[in-house]
Amino acid sequence: MGTVDVSLIKPELVFFDIDAEDADDLFAQLGARLDERGYIKDTWYDAVREREAAYPTGLACESIQVAIPHVDPEHIGRPYIAVVRPAKPVPFTHMAGLDVPVNAELVINLGLLAHAEDQVAVLQALMNIFMDDAKVEELRRQTTEEGMAETLARLCVEAAE
Questions:
Q1: Measured on CA atoms in the order 80, 17, 11, 106, is the torsion positive or negative?
Q2: CA angle 114, 117, 123 (to 5 degrees)
Q3: What's the CATH class of domain 6-160?
Q4: CA separation (Å) from 110 to 8, 44, 98?
Q5: Taking the model in full, what pTM does it have?
Q6: Does the keyword Transport apply (predicted)?
Q7: pLDDT confidence of 97, banded at 50, 70, 90?
């Protein structure tokens, strides 16, 4: 498996306080925060909504329900991995096309410039984490932006080994 650039996981990209009714609302709030920090281009919001509609990213794992939305590199200002633990679970469409919503407790938004190879490494690492009850519990225990960023970065490194 490839390596994950964990330098892209930063406390300034961890958000615990987003209270969203649906994925579009979450994207609007996240987009505003990413934009003010210089991570995305003006086309990001429409692009992430269109991509999510065409290729849903909701994933119901045994331990946690997650979503891993992303966009093509031309909508990214500088690379990032944003982590959102919303105030309440946000419904996403199931990536397998199932007619049951995935109520995402955690949303990992990938903003990667070297699309294919970097994305595969990150997705593989995240899947290894989300399939492990103990690792999911470690993420759930985090209460600070710093703790979440450090824990997710460490777990990604471990998962890629």
A1: negative
A2: 105
A3: alpha beta
A4: 9, 12, 23
A5: 0.94
A6: yes
A7: confident
